[in-house]
Amino acid sequence: MNLEGVEKTMLLTIYTKAKHSQEKNHKFYDSKAIEVISKIDYDFTMAEKDKMMQMGVIGRTIVLDSMVSEYISKHPDCTIVNIASGMDTRFNRLDNGKIKWYNVDLENSAKFRLEYLPDTERVTTLAYSAMDSKWASEIEASEDMLFIIEGLTMYLTEQDNSEILRIIDDNFDSCTIFTEIMPPVSVENTKEVSVEETNSEFIWGLKSGRELTGLNRHFRWVKDVNLFDGVNVYKPIYRLFTWFPLLKKRMDYIAVLEK
């Protein structure tokens, strides 16, 4: 496949979405993920065994699907940019027939994606690093812009994350950002077997999305949405302990920024 390191994690996420979609009580259904996984020749043994990774991906998908769906309902003609998109299939789940969607990812990942998820009239894949400002010049901006940064920030340095915000800031007058952040305590202690198998490691995180304004003061922090909100939908019984403050502080969250 020629996928290396963090690039391989995109296979874990689409596998998890396909697997969950085939469960009896699935909370979202992703027919495209099922279709793609049926065509990929890859050993998903570790992903199958990694329940922590699966819980995180499912919880995150439930939360972000809800947030993005709400944004689309308020801005039906919006443009959405999915940074480090991997094999994400959210467009297929949430498309309203009007939105424009851009997937930005490394050249190798983008090529792999296009083998299984070809572009359409309203979906465009751009082969760039998130820290390469050239991708921004290829975006046909609209009045309502949403940037999704999912499953990326924890693998980058603070300087890299700051650069992504700078690129968005320099090229778009107004926008909303949904970005997944891992708390520092989890960066240091989280062990996901299937992620480690890809030779990837978590290296950066923040206690609150409010701290992102320290990287770029042109953005306003709106709120943080804990991914346990999605886990509790997936497994309602988890509500018995996910309210516990110390545990909640260890879970990833979606920071919402506006400009």
TrEMBL record:
Keywords: Methyltransferase, Transferase
InterPro entries reported in the protein's UniProt record: Ppm1/Ppm2/Tcmp (IPR007213), SAM-dependent_MTases_sf (IPR029063), TcmP-like (IPR016874)
A Pfam family annotated for this UniProt entry: LCM
GO biological process terms, semicolon-separated: methylation
UniProt KW Protein biosynthesis keyword: no
An example molecular function term from Gene Ontology annotations: methyltransferase activity
Top-rank taxon: Archaea
Segment forming the signal sequence: none
Record carries keyword Coiled coil: no
Protein name: Leucine carboxyl methyltransferase
Organism: Methanobrevibacter thaueri
